[in-house]
Structures are given as C-alpha cells and as structure tokens.
Amino acid sequence: MSCVSTSLLTNDLSISNIKGNIPVDTGNFCNVIDLSMGNNQLSGAIPTSIQRLQNLQGLYLNDNELGGHIPYELYQLYNLAELILGGIHLSVYITSCLGTVVVFLRSLLLGPNLLTSKIPSSLWELKY
Predict the structure, then answer these.
(1) Helix, strand, coil tally for the chain in percent (to 5)
(2) Which segments cross the bilayer (predicted)?
(3) N or C: which end of the chain has fewer CB within 10 A?
(4) For residue 17, how many C-alpha atoms fall within 13 Å in the half-sphere facing its CB?
(5) Residues in the chain with pLDDT < 50?
(6) pTM of the entire predicted model
(7) What is the predicted pLDDT for the residue at 61?
C-alpha cells in the first residue's frame, strides 16, 4: 500500500460521533504523528494496518466500543510515546514485548478494560 497523504501529521477525530470499525485504510496515512479517535462509537478490533504508521507518537482510542485484544502490530510502533486505550473493551492480556519494543512510551492508559493479565515487568523498565 502507498501513502494516502504525506502531509497530514495530526488527525484529531475525537468527539465526532463516528460509528463503526476503524477503517483499515487508516494505516495509509504514513506520516501521521498523532491519531486521536477517542470518545466516539467505534467498534470492532484495532486494525493490524496500524503498524504502517511508523511515525506515530500518540494513539488515542479511549472511550469507544472497541474490543478484542491489543494487536501485536501495535507493539511495532517504535516511536509511540503515548498510548491511550482506556474505556474500551480490550480483553486477554498485555504481552511483555510492549515494554521492550515500544521504548519511547511515556504515557500508557489501559483502564478500565477487561484485561486479564498482570502488568509485565518490562513496563517498569521503560526509561521515559
């Protein structure tokens, strides 16, 4: 896939009454630094195409109806500094690679959710 836009850096769609799934094409905004889609009515899973947003520093999907698990592809966003996933319906667990791969992570909000695992010790070792 090619980039849809190389000039779009911030995409703030929070509190926009958006319903349905996060479009798979969201991964085509290659240079986006901040993606905010919080406080909508988004449902379904976080798409794996999110891994194409390699410049992403902030991802805000809080307070939606999203479900499923945290996709492994999210852990491949090496520049991610803020990950806000609170108030959605994530389940299963947080893998230990979140703390080892996403090394620039400064803010992490995961609750309230339906997560069933302990917090991996690798998160306590983040340097920021």
Answers:
(1) 20, 25, 55
(2) 83-105
(3) C
(4) 0
(5) none
(6) 0.83
(7) 93
Fold for the domain defined by 10-125: 3.80.10
Phi/psi-derived region of residue 101, left when phi > 0, alpha when psi is between -120 and 50, beta in every other case: alpha
Domain spans in the chain, listed from the N-terminal domain onward: 10-125
Query: Would you say 72 and 98 are in contact if contact means Cβ atoms under 8 Å apart?
Result: no
- The length of the chain in residues reads 128
pLDDT of residue 17: 94
- 3 state DSSP class of 96: coil
Identify the H or E element spanning 10.
strand 10-12
